[in-house]
Amino acid sequence: MTAETARKRRVIVITDGDKVARKAVESATRRIGGRCISLSAGNPTPVTGKKLAQMILSTPHDPVVVMVDDRGAVGMGKGEQALWEISHDDRIELIGAVAVASNTLGAEGITVDQSVDRYGRLVDGPVDKNGYPEPPGNRYLEGDTVETLTQLPIPVIIGTGDTGKMQGADHVRRGAPITTQALLEILRRAGNNGVD
């Protein structure tokens, strides 16, 4: 790792931002010892990429977890625009993303490195909104805000079902275990099981 890379703020992106997701992401981020930018939550994302970058850089340590959401908009929505902007900030390193499955109509979907299913298992291929592994042959995780992920320098993409939901499997009262595991897997692949 170079000195320049070491100075960058490490960020994990989650492609969901509604009220339920916000509580789950806050809980999961606490569990991994990271910092959650709660103001990034919203449906759609309420802050610009420039403002989001300022908040990321003002946090005392990383990893920093941010939420981006397009509220089902097809094409470049507010969440994707904010994500695009922070990904092109030289002071920020995107170490991974949690791609959240949804029932968004017209979504093309993306391939993921792996997914965490509703039972907490790391599986090859995508899962659906409720965290069930997709049938064999279905290669794409379909969800809001996910298509932009493949166009950005993000080294690992982990799929999950609907953040904080999955028919109770990721409920905040349980500590959002599926989201927590997805974040931990990204950290593991980044070569750090903890925080700076």
UniProtKB/TrEMBL annotation:
InterPro entries registered for this protein in UniProt: SpoVAE
Protein name: Stage v sporulation protein ae
Organism of derivation: Heliobacterium modesticaldum (strain ATCC 51547 / Ice1)
